[in-house]
Amino acid sequence: MDPQIVRELDRPRFYRVGEAAAMLNLSAMTLYRAIHAGEFPAIRVRNRIIVPARAIDDIEQAAVTSNSVVDTASFTTPAPPARPQA
User: How far is 59 from 69, CA to CA, in rounded Å?
Assistant: First the structure.
């Protein structure tokens, strides 16, 4: 099997916020604040928040490709409006 494929299969698809923060050399609280402000992509499942590995890869690639600072908020989309309670 191709070594690149093996590396991709061995790598997690999602990170806990603390893990992602450590990768980015941030405090977990800073990353939580960015996520809650809609400035960093994440997935919420009930009370749990996880960060897709792909989001970190895409942000890194954009910074490297553009050779400049990228704003993580540009990697998020506004949350859909909440549905009214019946």
Answer: 10
Q: State residue 35's pLDDT score.
A: 96
Report the Cα–Cα distance between both ends of the chain, in Å, rounded: 53
SS3 11: coil
What pLDDT shows up at residue 24?
96
Backbone Cα Rg of the chain: 15
Ranges of H-type helices in the chain: 3-10, 17-23, 28-36, 53-66
The tens digit of pLDDT for each residue in 4-59 reads 666 667 889 999 999 999 999 999 999 999 999 999 999 999 999 999 999 999 99
- What is the rounded CA–CA span in Å between residue 8 and residue 23? 17
d(CA 40, CA 31): 8
